[in-house]
């Protein structure tokens, strides 16, 4: 630690450049400095302090509790197990035809056919298999 209160002026050398101000930094032991601060602090803050540790030594971060845990590149590149949501099961032929009819009816200009398709969606229990394709169809824009 360097003393914060030591400012001096360097005057002279015969040139008229102006005053040069420099800091006369004196080294202070950190334990002495913390001891002075601790005595100045009030009772609730007397347990506060500083702890020094190395962040890196020679470009390598030491394994100590104060530093975060490093993850190896090999561990990071392990194959991830595919989740169930990534795998899509193929639809049966009946559901593919049903999806085609529903999407065509919703895009079409015939209002009667559109109402029939929406009523069919309300009654049909196999709609649960078409949720993902229908949501992506709606997202793309009807």
TrEMBL record:
One of its GO terms (cellular component) is SAGA complex. The keyword Transcription applies. One of its GO terms (molecular function) is RNA polymerase II general transcription initiation factor activity. Keywords: Initiation factor, Nucleus, Protein biosynthesis, Transcription, Transcription regulation. Residues 90-142 form the TAF6 C-terminal HEAT repeat domain. InterPro entries: TAF6, TAF6_C, TAF6_C_sf. Its main location: nucleus. Signal peptide: none annotated. GO terms for biological process: RNA polymerase II preinitiation complex assembly. It is found in: Nucleus. Belongs to the TAF6 family. PANTHER family: TRANSCRIPTION INITIATION FACTOR TFIID SUBUNIT 6. This is Transcription initiation factor TFIID subunit 6 (Trinotate prediction).
